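Now for one specimen:
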Amino acid sequence: MSPVRRVPGGLRLAVKVTPNASADRVRGVVIDPAGLAVLQVSVTVVPEDGKANAAVIALLAKRWKLAKSAFEVIRGATDRRKILEIQTDDPEGVRARILSDIDPSS
């Protein structure tokens, strides 16, 4: 099960954010209580004025070598559970890069 799925124009990524953490890091994929795969991400900033969302986007963009402008929070802007949309002309290539990073066995 994967937190990444293809949509027209790019990808959607299910994320669970832990703000105010000790370090910025991608912690891995877990299955939530509803049975959906989500990527756990921790950021050191507090969840106010969109700072945590910006930190998540900056972390993932740098890690996956994508432009921050390619990311948009389309659901859950004020919630810990979010859906990010990633605009890309190469959705399969980006999806493969993301999956190899979050699950090296894939």
Q: What stands out?
A: The domain at 4-101 is CATH 3.30.1200.10 (Conserved Hypothetical Protein Mth637; Chain: A;). The mean pLDDT is 94. The radius of gyration is 13 Å. The chain has two helices and six strands.
